[in-house]
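Before relying on records like the one below, remember that each one covers exactly one chain. Contacts with other chains, cofactors or solvent are not represented anywhere in the record.
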Amino acid sequence: MFDRREILVGGAALGLLPIAARAALPVPAGNRLGFDVLLKGSKLGTHVLTFEPRGDGLSVHVAVDLVYKLAGITFYHYKHRATETWSGDQVVGLDATTDDNGTAYQVAVRRDASGLVVTGNKTPRYVAPADAMPATHWNRRELEGPWINTETGAIARPKITPLGVDTIPTANGTTRARHFALTGDVQMDMWYDDARWAGIAFSKGGRDVRYVRQA
């Protein structure tokens, strides 16, 4: 079975967004962004983000539910819940819990004068760089700096390479989106149309996994 942690870690790239575009957070219409998670073309579960604007702040709620079954028998389950908190254009906190097939993870992130303080039940306390962002993927700005794995709390910096514009599937047909290849700490491909997250694809154990954006 694939390791869900492959899509919860990330890395760094430089100069991918103009400064003027960084002030406005890419909150989707309807305050919701959802994906069907497909394993070799069959639906494995969902990854849904809901957005709660609050004055000059924003809360982003993440819910990931995956179940792998054969002949009606559950061989793998995964449940992830996270709430990411923003003040203006700066992330200030994160609280996340994960059940990875019976293994429990907890992560908390708080911004103070030293940067983003990360604590977790699997990762010793540390201070992440001030420009680090939780790897929730909805904001393309995360490609500019290190990511904090929202499952384990670990930080990673894989190499990110822009690959131009592709046509990728969605629930409504297709969309044109910018393609980024991640190598090093994690091997996967990500797509964004404008600044909005459009999809992820990766291979684990010979199995192809793809996120297809819902309507």
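The radius of gyration is 16 Å.
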